[in-house]
Amino acid sequence: MDDECQKLLAEKEALIRELQEKVRELESKLRSYEIREVYKGVIPDEVLEELVKLPPEQMVIEIGKYLKEKGSAGQVEAKRTVTEIKQEIASVEEEVSKAEKEVDKTISAITGAAKAKVGVDLNFTQKYDNEGSDVAFLGEDIMKTLGVKEGEYITVKKNGVVNLRAIPYSKESFIVIPTWVREKIGVKVNDFVEVVKK
Fold first, then answer.
1. Segment 132-175, tens digit of pLDDT
2. Contacts of 162 (CB under 8 A, 6+ apart)
């Protein structure tokens, strides 16, 4: 069973790397087409060919330099298009982030384990953060992925293992655990832990 899980994990990691590489290629092609369309007639094709090969930040700088040399009319157009390009890049990065989250959810569903970021919550501290408390606030998204219902036990792992009762938490991908648990398994706030349905 362990070998099968390891094999599935290796396949999923290979798939993630392959998808990330394809996303990078598509981003590059998209950026290339968009840049050519925006600067058609403003910057010669041979100059554009060289510019689209650069990393996005460097490309923006080089386009600005080129247009500055051409005059102030080009500068106004460059500022407008640079802003548009940055917005488009941010949009693509957001899509990549969403895709990576979906891949993480798929891996969690297959392996029965999920990563959660350790957080703090004032309500939790007041009610449950005491010695011997066996309660954890667990992100609803993680509960859904692992098939955990309110009150069921989960196993939290890092440099040790603790079993806690899960209570739904609205913050995605987060877990809030008692201080004594953090000390026992050797984690700090903002560290990641592995969560498994018990």
1. 899 999 999 889 988 899 999 999 999 999 999 999 999 988 99
2. 155, 156, 177, 181, 184, 185
Give 34: exposed, middle or buried? Use CB within 10 Å, 0-12, 13-18, 19+.
middle
Give residue 157's pLDDT.
92
101: its two tokens: 């989250």
Residues present in the chain in total: 198
How is 9-28 classified by DSSP, letter by letter? HHHHHHHHHHHHHHHHHHHH
Distance CA 113, CA 192 (A): 13
Pair type for strands 161-169 and 113-118 = unpaired
Q: What is the DSSP letter of 79?
A: H
Tokens representing 76 are: 């106004």
Amino acid code (one letter) for 121: D
Please give the structure tokens belonging to residue 139. 């992100």
Helix 2-38 / helix 56-70 crossing angle, nearest 10 deg? 10
Express each pLDDT in 51-94 by its tens digit. Answer: 777 777 787 788 788 777 776 555 555 566 777 777 888 787 88
Query: Is the model's pTM score more than 0.70?
Result: no
164 φ, ψ (degrees, to nearest 5): -135, 155
How large is the average pLDDT for residues 127-133?
90
